[in-house]
Amino acid sequence: MTNQAIARSAPHHRFLWPVLATLMVISWSSGFVGVRYASEEASVVLVLFWRTLLSGLILLPFALTIGPRMSLRSVLGEILFGVMSVFLYLGGFALAIEQRVPTGLVALISDLLPLAIACLSQPFLGERLTRRQWLGTAIAVAGVLLVSFESLSFGEAPFWAYALTVGSMLIFALASVLYRRRRTEHMPVHQSLCIQTLTGSALFSLCTLLQGNIAPPMTAEFAIGMAWLVLFATFAAYSLYYTSLRLFPVAQVSAVIYLSPPVTMVWAWALFNEPLTAIMFIGLAVTMVGVWMTSRG
């Protein structure tokens, strides 16, 4: 089904948004699993390079043969979004982690993305949040803080590395708002994602070459991690996110990302036997209430 057909049918299917939101938060939070497997024997930058390269190469034949002919203007636009939402967003967090910013803090800042989008949606898009939505946003943030509290620490990284995490999150928020605002016709998601991931891979290759090694580890763990990152954390997560942005208000779409931390905890418990605590369940419940209020506003 084309994006135009989905857009025409969206108002008539009351369950379309709940289904998209559920699939999006599951795929978005699953990125942790792929990184956990793939980064055992490789640097984070090397993982990002192979993730984006494989994603782009798999999509390339479909992008060239299925869908409308891509114009230079539309390709340049997608390259810009690739720089912002793939290279600067993912790469910024990767660099921050390598500079020893605590992973829990990086994850928390990343999961505050919907708050930044909510603040940007009014001046850029004219999408004003109601009082109920702002209250829901505050409740969702409180839930995320509860879930992340036990893993938080501040570490001894340089100040610019902490600023980098905030900047990376803000760049992706800005890219999301601009993507929703763009005046030109959207190309199909598979073409858009192909260009963005290939753009990211080209830039990540330079970073990887500076580290001196671009070859992937030939291990089962790395292969499993790559398959997971490509199929779930890239194809599913980004495709669902971009499709939802075309159909629904950007603040509503981004609000479900608040559920990523607690769902990630469930992934970690199911696959790696990491413990689940009572405060995590409380945080999950609080976050769900906040997301429900924001989405219904």
From TrEMBL:
Top-rank taxon: Bacteria
Record membrane topology: Multi-pass membrane protein
Signal peptide: none
Subcellular location: Membrane
A family per Pfam: EamA
Listed transmembrane segments: 15-38, 44-67, 79-97, 103-122, 159-179, 191-211, 223-241, 253-272, 278-295
Keyword field: Membrane, Transmembrane, Transmembrane helix
Residue ranges constituting the EamA domain according to the UniProt record: 17-148, 160-295
Cellular component terms per the entry's GO annotation: membrane
Principal place of residence: membrane
InterPro entries per record: AA-Vitamin_Transporters, EamA_dom, EmrE-like
Annotated PANTHER family: EAMA DOMAIN-CONTAINING PROTEIN, INNER MEMBRANE TRANSPORTER
Record-stated family: Belongs to the EamA transporter family.
Protein name: EamA-like transporter family protein
Organism: Rhizobium aethiopicum
